[in-house]
Specification:
About 45% of the residues lie in helices and about 10% in strands. It contains 22 helices and ten strands. α13 packs across α17 and α14 packs across α15. The protein starts with a helix and ends in a 5-residue tail after the last helix. The structure holds flavin-adenine dinucleotide and iron/sulfur cluster.
Length: about 600
């Protein structure tokens, strides 16, 4: 039988030199001698067929996989029968209590499930058009939620809990949360309805109104904590009481102390510093190839067929035989373990790096697993802190702190801002931006190489890492004056992890400064210089990052100055921006005029950029 390495060489074209296998996967049935080998090189996936003895093959695979540095935990083709698995969960019968579980509340550690199992309680999960249609979602996002919900329901039922699962195509489905709740409650004749506090404002309102109309002497309603976050909804607002603006750093330090995370026994921050931001800004070395992300390939054809048959409008792409996101708790733990083992040692260093060599660089890809509550933030933070204590030589404090700050700091902070400022927050438009989102945001078909790459990979993976979202697409949108409503709808739709509480605070707040400075102290904008410094896009771009004016000049350059000039009245007094205005004021008036003309030309041809 041909060895894996030499077989892989045969199916990878020579154009992929320098030859290097990043990952090899096998699709084979133990009872057959036929095998499909998938080989991934830097950019492409190839496959070929081979035959051999299946038992001997296992050894060959193990040996060759180790030699080829293949990720040993990679799964292949987990096949779920998406309908059969929940067919037992479609029946309703009398129960004393209905407990509603929303699609992002898949927390098997919740105290609901620690209590002794009661057959008087029915747990209800629903797929609904109300949720598929409130934004144009990426197909992978819809699949991730429905898949995670079905597997969660199945697991709960296997553990003995009574579960009712309403599929999108069930004829009884009213496709609305509260209308479904009405008939389910009546059908089972429940005396009590309970839910966990929703994280989305719109769902919280919907359930609160339902509660106001339905609470009677015959119907008790109880709302539970979701037991997921470090903080309570109003904790951040209390922390900053009396302050006009919030700042992450104060809150983050208080969280570190309160939860005793990365603190020494004497009460000092581990390593002597609260924050290693300055060392978290490295560019990837030339030709550096980050490890491949761990994908957990599942066959989701059954789900995709149902979503399409229902006529749900989605965006983005999906290979339905290879869905890679973690959608069970076990998957999430596996991705966390892989992150700690392989990616954490460089997470902080390359947190801000931009590259075309990898779609997730050293990022964890844990946001969906956490946002759907498959994993708790504290278990992720604790695992990373433990790894730092166990192996300080391999995992430097700057890597661990850089990661923990995102979860214990930013994630809790954004949630607190959301609950302190909704519903007003979703109407804020500090700069009064009005421009329509260019159509190429949905296709990636723009000549700006950095923007095109970020959008392309978003459509391919329903993912872009933080700096792509902030400094590439977000930066362009802010400079171009795109309406924050249009931008929110885009970010809310296209990312696997997008839920309004964390999407809108990042988009309208951190990225667009549409909140006038509640989240951040200044707008995140940059010219081509930053993008050139942090990534490798510019060499392959139609535009010149060093040119400031004219058709060939990078559009970021003139738009940057145009933005500051347009919003002088709103930004000039910001102490963090003074330098930009001083530079602008020192510029020759001819140069200023040429920059503003170039910006106007680019805004006029925005669809063709
Ligand atoms: C315009 C814009 C929109 C965004 N929309 C979302 C969104 O809809 N949902 C979402 O979860 N995150 C959002 N973020 C924050 C961040 O980009 C993502 O959490 C991150 O890219 C997810 O990938 P990861 O799990 O690999 O993160 P890593 O880089 O590995 O970080 C680890 C974890 O830290 C948390 N985190 C990191 N940065 C932030 C942040 N700024 N705010 C809150 N939590 C953070 C996430 O839970 C993330 O999983 C957005 C950022 C921007 C600039
Ligand atoms: S030249 Fe400008 S548009 Fe092109 S990749 Fe560089 S920063 Fe992006």
């Amino acid at each position: 039988m041909v060895g894996v390495e030499s077989f892989a060489k045969r199916i990878i074209p020579t154009t992929c030199e320098p030859w290097r296998v990043h990952e090899v996967k096998f699709s084979c049935d133990a009872s057959t001698t036929h095998q499909t080998v998938y080989v991934r090189c830097a950019k492409n996936l190839f496959h070929g067929e081979r035959s051999g003895n299946p038992v001997g093959m296992k050894f060959a695979i193990a040996r060759n996989a180790a030699e080829a540095n293949v990720h040993p935990k990679s799964h292949w083709n987990m096949h779920e029968d998406w309908n059969d698995s929940i067919s037992e969960l479609r029946h309703l019968s009398p129960a004393k209590e209905v407990r509603l579980i929303l699609g992002d509340q898949l927390n098997s550690q919740h105290s609901w499930f620690v209590e002794p199992v009661s057959q008087e309680v029915v747990y209800v999960l629903m797929e609904m058009r109300q949720e598929t249609d409130y934004a144009p979602h990426h197909i992978q996002k819809v699949v991730a939620f429905f898949g995670a919900m079905r597997l969660f329901a199945q697991q709960r039922a296997t553990s003995g809990f009574r579960v009712f699962y309403l599929t999108l195509d069930d004829a009884r489905n009213r496709q609305s949360l509260t209308e479904n709740l009405d008939w389910i409650r009546a059908e089972v004749n429940a005396a009590k309805v309970s839910w966990q506090m929703p994280d989305e404002y719109r769902l919280d309102q919907q359930l609160t109104e339902w509660s106001a109309h339905n609470r009677t002497e015959d119907l008790e309603i109880e709302v539970f904590d979701s037991e997921h976050f470090y903080t309570k909804r109003s904790e951040l607002a209390s922390f900053f009481k009396g302050k006009k603006t919030y700042r992450l750093e104060n809150f983050y330090r208080a969280m570190r102390k309160k939860h005793d995370v990365l603190m020494t026994p004497t009460g000092d921050p581990e390593g002597g510093s609260w924050n290693y931001d300055a060392s978290n800004r490295q560019k990837l070395p030339k030709d550096h190839m980050p490890p491949l992300p761990l994908t957990l390939d599942r066959n989701v054809e059954g789900l995709v067929n149902m979503i399409e048959a229902a006529g749900v409008k989605t965006t983005g792409r999906l290979d339905s035989k290879r869905f890679g996101w973690p959608i069970t708790r076990a998957d999430g733990l596996e991705v966390l373990a892989y992150f700690i083992e392989t990616l954490l040692p460089h997470f902080g260093d390359f947190q801000d790096a931009l590259t075309t060599n990898s779609w997730s660089v050293y990022h964890s890809r844990l946001s969906f697993a956490m946002n759907a509550k498959l994993l708790t933030p504290s278990e992720v933070v604790n695992a990373v802190e433990q790894a730092f204590h166990d192996e300080p030589d391999r995992i430097d404090v700057s890597q661990a702190e850089g990661f923990i700050r995102q979860i214990l700091g930013w994630r809790e902070y954004m949630r607190g801002v959301y609950w302190a400022h909704m519903p007003n927050y979703e109407t804020l438009n500090f700069f009064e931006h009005k421009r329509k989102l260019p159509d190429w945001f949905w296709t990636g078909k723009t000549n700006m190489a950095c923007v095109s790459h970020a959008i392309e990979q978003t459509m391919e993976h329903a993912y872009a890492h933080h700096i792509q979202r902030l400094m590439v697409t977000g930066n362009f949108a802010l400079l171009a004056g795109i309406h924050p409503d249009e931008l929110d709808a885009w970010y809310l739709g296209v990312y696997i992890d997008a839920l309004q509480w964390v999407e809108i605070t990042n988009t309208r707040g951190m990225s667009q400064f549409a909140d006038g400075g509640i989240v951040g102290s200044k707008p995140y904008v940059s010219s081509a210089q930053y993008l050139k410094k942090m990534g490798h896009y510019c060499k392959g771009c139609q535009y010149d990052p060093n040119e400031k004016v004219g058709e060939k000049a990078c559009p970021f350059n003139a738009l940057y100055w145009d933005f500051y000039d347009r919003h002088r009245d709103k930004l000039e007094r910001n102490p963090r921006i003074g330098m930009a205005y001083r530079t602008w004021d020192r510029m020759d008036p001819e140069k200023q005029r040429a920059l503003l003309e170039t910006a106007a030309m680019n805004l006029n041809r925005i669809e063709e950029l």
